[in-house]
Design a protein that fits this description.
Layout (H helix, E strand, L loop, with lengths): L27 E3 L1 H13 L6 E8 L5 E8 L7 E5 L2 E5 L1 H7 L2 E8 L2 E7 L5 E2 L5 E3 L28
Parallel strand pairs: 1-6, 2-5
Antiparallel strand pairs: 2-3, 3-9, 4-5, 6-7, 8-9
Length: 160
């Protein structure tokens, strides 16, 4: 008696097919305006299957700097959740510094852009891109995420 084994090739899931854990707490929350702007950018750039990675990296004039990047694949250890219809990815090292943070979109006469309001920041630079998480944390505790280079190293605001 012969047995036949069938091998079925399963398609690799795209990021939009991956489930969001229903019990996952929103580590970072988007304001309604930030979510609207992000969805618009993602639509305009044809990134509708992507999510937004929010992370921190060592550097900047206050010790850490914020970073955001569009992602189409999850990395090991990522926390994945949804805020106002936008899928967000936060790595474990960044999560402890970003828990409770809000991403907002600010539009002013001096220009607009995304701003992170972080309750864990002990102090921030006036540029809003760099923060200090408290005594002893310094840049050595920062997360060296592969996307950190996109920020250019320091915040470059000149407010050191």
């Amino acid at each position: 008696m012969m047995t036949q084994t069938m091998t079925q090739t399963m398609p690799v899931p795209v990021i939009s097919d991956l489930p969001v854990a229903p019990d996952m707490t929103e580590i970072v929350e988007l304001t309604p305006l930030a979510a609207e702007k992000l969805r618009g950018i993602m639509q305009e750039k044809n990134l509708t299957t992507h999510g937004l990675r929010v992370f921190i990296a060592g550097g900047g004039c206050s010790g850490f700097q914020y970073g955001m990047a569009f992602e189409n694949q999850m990395e090991e250890g990522d926390m994945v959740f949804e805020s106002r219809g936008v899928r967000l990815y936060v790595d474990q090292a960044s999560a402890m510094y970003l828990e409770g943070a809000n991403v907002d979109y600010v539009d002013s006469l001096m220009g607009g852009g995304f701003r992170i309001e972080n309750p864990n920041a002990v102090s921030t630079c006036s540029c809003g891109q760099s923060f200090n998480a408290g005594a002893g944390d310094g840049a050595q505790a920062g997360h060296s995420h592969e996307h950190a280079h996109a920020s250019g190293g320091g915040c470059g605001c000149g407010h050191h």
